[in-house]
Amino acid sequence: MANVTIKDVARVAQVSVATVSRALNGHGNVAEDVRTRVFAAAQQLRYTPHAAARSLSSRRTQTLGVVLPDLHGEFFSELMRGIDQVARAHRLHLLVSSYHGNPEEQGAALRAMRGRVDGLLVMSPIVAAPALLSEELEPSLPTVLINSQAGLDGTAVLGVDNYGGAVAMVEHLVARGHRRIAFIAGPRDNFDAHERLRGYRDALARLQPGSHEWVVQGDFDEASGHRAGHELLAASPRPDAVFAANDMMALGCLFAFAQAGVAIPGDIALAGFDDIPLARYVHPALTTMRVNIAELGARAARLLIAQVAGEAASETSVIATELIVRESSGIPPRTLS
């Protein structure tokens, strides 16, 4: 259909031209059923807003920027899936960049987004993130931080209850009768890793007074989990249980144990954190703390879209974790000291 206008979309959707404009521009103050009706009418009529005119009239790019420490692995895949679903529902585009954990590259990525996006989703779990971000973020640009240390005035932060999740996992392992509980820690400069280590230490001190913590360094990837697994196997006595600060390290550790012929959970119990999709499909299936990763991304995107529309103040909120018990921690160790 030639020369279809916004008025035609409004007529078919049975709403005002202003409502069509708000819906197509991603404003949050449009009921979802109305938004769906507007999109359906626009699709039926094959209506496409003129991008240049739309940008000039609204001074918006219809694009959200996403800056992440990495794009590799199931965690980031799930996070992007959640962000993308919300962006598509609001007819918005995504401009995605990764800084590979390098603070200087993070700054370059944030600078490259200026003038090209209407708002930013930034995951910056670097411990020094507040100081780094304060130098690079434009105060006037709506921004939502994901899994980042709070500390920037006026910036919304959406995170995971890393500390509470780690405490709950140690409680689970102790309740199963495990006493020598080793922990594979994440990167030293990572805020999530700090909180999970803090939860492990506090829970161990409370539940097993006088016991010694057993921390092996990891890097949130499979290779570091594999190395940690071999290090733990060389210890005497070996641990009763191993709690890895994320699932990727737990899976690397699981492979090391399998190579050595160690039975899980018969010889050593094993647990992770995140509940990536692969966790339920390995053998034995992995006990873990569930983070609804896709919902984390979706919720952050919805919060940012509301901010872009001027309808939300900054806030700090935490997403709860859930203990998922599977076979890898299913039975107590054979011998307790």
TrEMBL record:
Transcription in keyword set: yes
GO MF term (any one): DNA binding
SUPFAM superfamilies given in the database record: lambda repressor-like DNA-binding domains (SSF47413), Periplasmic binding protein-like I (SSF53822)
InterPro entries assigned: HTH_LacI, LacI/GalR-like_sensor, Lambda_DNA-bd_dom_sf, Peripla_BP_I
Organism of origin: Lysobacter panacisoli
Protein name (record): LacI family DNA-binding transcriptional regulator
Keywords: DNA-binding, Repressor, Transcription, Transcription regulation
PANTHER family tied to this protein: HTH-TYPE TRANSCRIPTIONAL REPRESSOR CYTR, LACI-RELATED TRANSCRIPTIONAL REPRESSOR
The UniProt record lists the keyword Nucleotidyltransferase: no
Lineage: superkingdom: Bacteria
Domain HTH lacI-type: 4-58
